[in-house]
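Async update (no meeting this week)

Hi team, since we skipped the sync, here's where things stand on the single-chain job. The sequence we agreed to prioritize is pasted below, unchanged from the tracker. I ran it this morning and attached the output directly underneath so nobody has to dig for it. Comments welcome in thread, and please keep replies under the output.
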Amino acid sequence: MSNEKTIKVVNGWVMLVVTLLLFGVLAYTIYLVTQPPGKANPTPYVWAIVIEGLLATIVPIGFFTVEPNGSQVLLLFGKYVGTVKDTGFHWANPFYTRRKISLRARSLNGDKLKVNDSVGNPVEIAAIVVWRVTDTYAASFEVDDYESYVALQSETAVRHLASSFPYDGEEHEVSLRRNTDEVSTHLQAELQERLQLAGVQVIEARLSHLAYAPEIAGAMLRRQQASAVVAARQKIVDGAVGMVEMALERLEEHGKVQLDEERKAAMVTNLMVVLCGEQSAMPVVNAGTLYN
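Output:
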């Protein structure tokens, strides 16, 4: 439950007029005292000057302003009084201690961290976190420095995220490289849980950098290239087998060419070589028969 309390204070322009009137009264009182002595006792005027002088000194201390998406946390001798969020020119008790807290959205561009993923591979990872303060009481009194707290907890959450998922796992696994949306959602949820204590709302959290560590980057790149080549070859072979089956079915369907098992095997071999080869096929004219 939030302990933040939003309060209203006196309009600053009204108090500015009162302050100017106070200075005018003080000046007039001083004028009366400086006149030639008469029958009146000057002592009350002296006390009036002292009191008016103290008021004229203390009252202006209470003026302050609140910018859009800003706030002022008010304390009276260490006790929390409330938070002013209304924008404009205000006046409050001069004995209040004021703490300015911005409610604007801020972005934290985290440093690159070197962490082992869930399978032990060292990776470099960094994240951008967009956040803002929603509870000024928690930001002021629940943590020592809420900005440092956000930075530290963000780094901790990113490290935990990297160690919870593989960089590039199997197809059925959630990985850092392929499932960026799911990983970002997980990071945002964990950050929100960690920063709730400081009265901070996490608006967005996304990875800004993700790569293998330099010592294994070359080997992992070759592994990825090999996986890509194998996948491409598998697709080519699947397509070639389908085309060969279709060719044999068409030939047998029309009955124009009768092929025994040996000729079928030779035809399949030739078609697979042509379809799966990386270079253009070189036709060879057979002047004899298959058996000579």
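Quick observations from my side:
The chain has a mean pLDDT of 81.
The two ends are 93 Å apart (CA to CA).
Reply here if anything looks off.
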